[in-house]
Amino acid sequence: ALVSLRQLLDHAAEFGYGLPAFNVNNLEQMRAIMEAADAVDAPVIVQASAGARKYAGAPFLRHLMLAAVEAFPHIPVVMHQDHATTPDICQRSIQLGFSSVMMDGSLKGDGKTPSDYDYNVDVTRTVVRFAHACGVSVEGEIGCLGSLATGKAGEEDGVGAEGTLDHSQMLTDPEEAAHFVRDTGVDALAIAIGTSHGAYKFSSKPTGEVLRIDRIKEIHERIPNTHLVMHGSSSVPQDWLAIINQYGGDIPETYGVPVEEIVEGIKYGVRKVNIDTDLRLACTGTLRRFLATHRAEFDPRKYLADTVQSMRDVCIARYEAFGAAGQA
Ligand code: G3H
Ligand code: 13P
Ligand code: NA
Ligand code: ZN
Description:
binds glyceraldehyde-3-phosphate, binds sodium ion, Aldolase_TIM, fructose-bisphosphate aldolase activity, eight-stranded parallel barrel, binds 1,3-dihydroxyacetonephosphate, FBA_II, TIM Barrel, alpha/beta, 46% helix
């Protein structure tokens, strides 16, 4: 059944677990997420970015998500708009049937320029007003994602600040977070603690200096009833990097957010954990390996089925690690 984000996160808070929120662009990702959830009895958050809507087109994206709800009627599913940069995008998503939207007012409408507090409150409050009137949940963001070591937002196009950010922009202030939740009425709050989008988060296994799990604890102490959201939370599995590179890829050494650090965050109020890159890596590694080892094969169903299998395994691992297995 289609449910709101608020319903799932309230349950997650009550029972002390976290939910991975996987990005979806196509049939194979959608199948992988749903088959994994079905296998371990986990509730589902699927999210679509503006880039996903551009890639698949709104009707395909909408019906892909509705197909998931129809094919797995026993699993609660949230249809979430990821990183909308304007209230108009949120409104369109609600019209399409999404049950949750993220108004990311941490950046201006161009998705690149850091905004100020008043702008962020203004656009987020506007979305909360019309979304709540429709029973749709709202995620807001305070602080900008970015590397505390380099000040860079990350490699993804369309979802990150341009240029260099300073430390205070990339680390959510607990006091400001409390004011933001009070001023906007959001259902969930994305915070910045040193993660960034894409595969290039950290140049070595992250220490507490560059990945500030301690900041999550401080925010949670200040606003214990607010559901926190971690973006840029792919773990960038070293074994998938190795497979990609073994079969012709060329990805430099890089590190993600260790699963055990996310699990620590879940102890302190993190309820939604955004993951896109890990499924991209598993898909690419599987495809490269398959094509290199089945040189006469040309039926796309063969290699795409293999990618579903690998992405499904990544999803299962996250559902289990975050405590979402058995909660559907
Ligand atoms: O927010 C970041 C997600 O990884 C979406 O990325 O804009 O390339 O679809 P995308
Ligand atoms: P990753 O790039 O770490 O998978 O983050 C995805 C994300 O935050 C989507 O909003
Ligand atoms: Na989101
Ligand atoms: Zn994000």
